[in-house]
Amino acid sequence: MTWAGLSLVRAWAALYRADVESKPSLSGKQRRHLRALAHHLEPVVLLGKQGVTDGLVDAVRVAIETHELIKVKLGKECPATTAEVGESLEAALGAHVVGAIGKTLIVYLRHRSEPKINLPRG
User: Fold this and answer.
1) Across-strand partners of 99?
2) Three-class DSSP category at 105
3) How far apart are CA 61 and CA 46, in angstroms?
4) Tally of domains within the chain
5) What is the pLDDT of residue 39?
6) Interatomic CA distance for residues 75 and 32, integer angstroms
7) Would you say residue 115 lies in a domain?
8) By C-alpha distance, which of 97, 99, 122 is closest to 109?
């Protein structure tokens, strides 16, 4: 990940600090449920050689507002690791990375007004 990309992600995180700080944590049971729901999903956002950029954060934001649960695939030429990308998306969007399979991340963010996914209790 480039320093410029990292500073842009930090800027997004500063803008949405209230969302990031107020996000509730997910239990293991809820994470398992979300991973099971994501099993049949195809990656919606593909990450290329530029790494995490404003455009990527915007694309993930639009996709996650539409679907709540998405997969993000890192391409072969992506300079960042899945852990780095996951941390960046969590910081920028206030989302949860509920799993990683190879170079694919499973990202969840509950819709504010009309949630589609019902999570099991605790």
Assistant:
1) 106
2) strand
3) 13
4) 1
5) 95
6) 25
7) no
8) 97
CATH number at residue 62: 3.30.110.60
pLDDT along the chain (122 residues), means of 10: 56 52 80 95 93 91 94 94 94 94 95 90 79
Q: How many Cα atoms sit within 13 Å of 22 on the Cβ side?
A: 6
The Cα diameter of the chain in Å comes to 40
DSSP letter assigned to residue 14:
H
| Confidence (pLDDT) at 105 | 96
Residue 20: predicted pLDDT = 46
Angle at 38 between CA 32 and CA 41, to 5 degrees: 170
Q: Is residue 120 part of a domain?
A: no
At position 17, the amino acid (one-letter code) is R
* CA separation for the pair 16, 116 (Å, rounded): 23
The rounded distance, in Å, linking the Cα atoms of 28 and 6 is: 29
In a domain, 113, yes or no: no
Structural domain contains residue 45: yes
Location of structure tokens 């990292």 = 6
